[in-house]
């Protein structure tokens, strides 16, 4: 049987447009070990680690006529040197140069004729450092057959990975006729999909379109229960181009813990989480950023964030099926509230209300609005969902806890790591952050034209956290 993409994974391919590429990335900064670190060492790390993940040597093939979702096929001409690359920063090799490099390569689409990932070794970083920048398509990272390529580079102990026997041999790529035949068989085994596939012309468009609209209507109804009004008009929602800006912000995890200990007081103190502190910090940063822009900020002003949250107790911690263990909370960040501690308590209450009140939305529901429609019409539904996003929320904020011990690439210790999240249509900014080894690292990916002042927002995150941590208990 063909290794077919699920509707969820396929939707990430259909969401792509010339201005919205659906790959995630990471920027990992390392201390250069005494013996140095070379492209050959990085290639060896990757080569040995992908042995257990065949997906990294597979590419996507579309089915003629889009009779079914695309399939994964082995890349008979797989070339590791195409995917693992080397570059260097211009002097002085500071973080500004690294951020500009990341913005430029993340603006380029992945080649769909090859496996959907890339890794860059970036040399010339000041203070005796180097960086590894990754790009992995959302469709590839399903948590079962493959994980983000950055996870495969890292290890909990310094040293080279042990040599492994690579028994992988590519299977011959199917012909178009075979792909069509497999699609017909799959449709026969799934009557509801077959009905969608053979239903013709205007009836198909109308009936599936109605199903898409019902899905969107249900989603809007769910969001409406958690927020009294549609997402506010915001400069965070704009027509975007393909060019990006990227900003890295490093903060101390202990500062976040200190804020939680200081300000997480009262009847629900145990429910104030580090994630709440993060969101309150971002709310304060948005407040400052909007004021510097001269935007109107009144007592009731909010920025609506979509915040993916892991469902407690779900899964075994292995990462398998992670996409189905996420739920999305729509939280109004109180940028109109001048008091830092009050912002924290409002955010904590809103998050608790969303999760405990059953108002959060499952991740698969957000992406699979078109149900089991044929791929062409599924693309229609996915694009409709993307177009709706500016009406549902202003920005996406993802927070992924990481290990609190040092990780290594070979003998090189990782100093910091910054996520790079993709932008959807109408979204000028995406914020990803991760905690690692005592730090909390924010990656701000923004449209180059709509967010020329994203550096101001980055500095505002630092200032907002300082404001929270310096507040006395009970202070506003």
From TrEMBL:
- Provide the top EC class: transferase
Q: Which GO terms describe its cellular component?
A: plasma membrane
Protein name (database record): Diacylglycerol O-acyltransferase
Annotated catalysed reactions: an acyl-CoA + a 1,2-diacyl-sn-glycerol = a triacyl-sn-glycerol + CoA
Fetch the PANTHER family from UniProt.
O-ACYLTRANSFERASE (WSD1-LIKE) FAMILY PROTEIN, WAX ESTER SYNTHASE_DIACYLGLYCEROL ACYLTRANSFERASE 4-RELATED
Domain (O-acyltransferase WSD1-like N-terminal): give its ranges.
Answer: 5-278
Its pathway is:
Lipid metabolism; Glycerolipid metabolism; triacylglycerol biosynthesis
Among the GO molecular function terms of this UniProt record, one is: diacylglycerol O-acyltransferase activity
């Amino acid at each position: 049987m063909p290794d077919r993409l699920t509707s969820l994974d396929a939707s990430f391919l259909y969401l792509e447009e010339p201005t919205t590429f659906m790959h995630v990335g990471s920027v990992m900064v390392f201390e250069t070990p005494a013996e140095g670190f070379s492209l050959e060492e990085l290639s060896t790390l990757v080569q040995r680690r992908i042995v257990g993940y065949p997906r990294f040597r597979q590419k996507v093939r579309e089915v003629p006529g889009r009779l079914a979702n695309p399939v994964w096929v082995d890349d008979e001409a797989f070339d590791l040197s195409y995917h693992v690359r080397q570059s260097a920063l211009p002097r002085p090799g500071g973080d500004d140069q690294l951020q500009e490099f990341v913005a430029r390569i993340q603006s380029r689409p992945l080649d769909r004729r090859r496996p959907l990932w890339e890794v860059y070794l970036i040399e010339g970083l000041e203070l005796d450092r180097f960086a590894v920048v990754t790009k992995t398509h959302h469709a590839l990272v399903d948590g079962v057959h493959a994980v983000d390529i950055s996870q495969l580079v890292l290890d909990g102990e310094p040293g080279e990975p042990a040599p492994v026997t690579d028994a992988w041999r590519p299977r011959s790529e199917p012909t178009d006729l075979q792909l069509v035949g497999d699609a017909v068989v799959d449709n026969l085994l799934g009557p509801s999909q077959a009905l969608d596939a053979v239903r013709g012309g205007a009836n198909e468009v109308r009936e599936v379109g109605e199903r898409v609209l019902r899905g969107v209507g249900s989603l809007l109804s769910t969001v409406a229960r958690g927020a009294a009004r549609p997402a506010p008009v915001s400069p965070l929602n704009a027509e975007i181009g393909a060019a990006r800006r990227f900003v890295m912000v490093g903060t101390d995890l202990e500062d976040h813990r200190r804020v939680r200990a200081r300000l997480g007081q009262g009847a629900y103190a145990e429910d104030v989480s580090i994630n709440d502190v993060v969101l309150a910090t971002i709310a304060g940063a948005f407040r400052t950023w909007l004021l510097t822009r001269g935007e109107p900020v009144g007592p009731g002003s909010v920025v609506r964030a979509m915040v993916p949250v892991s469902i407690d107790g779900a899964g075994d911690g292995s990462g398998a099926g992670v996409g189905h263990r996420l739920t999305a909370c729509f939280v109004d960040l109180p940028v109109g509230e001048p008091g830092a501690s009050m912002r924290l308590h409002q955010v904590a209450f809103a998050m608790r209300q969303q999760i405990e009140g059953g108002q959060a939305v499952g991740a698969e529901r957000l992406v699979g609005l078109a149900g089991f429609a044929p791929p062409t019409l599924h693309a229609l539904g996915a694009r409709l969902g993307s177009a709706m996003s500016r009406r549902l929320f202003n920005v996406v904020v993802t927070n992924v806890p990481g290990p609190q011990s040092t990780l290594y690439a070979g003998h090189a210790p990782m100093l910091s790591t910054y996520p790079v999240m993709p932008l959807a249509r109408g979204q000028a900014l995406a914020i990803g952050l991760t905690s690692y080894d005592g730090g909390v690292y924010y990656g701000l990916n923004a449209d180059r034209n709509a967010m020329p002042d994203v550096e101001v927002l980055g500095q505002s995150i630092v200032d907002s956290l300082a404001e929270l941590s310096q507040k006395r208990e009970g202070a506003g």
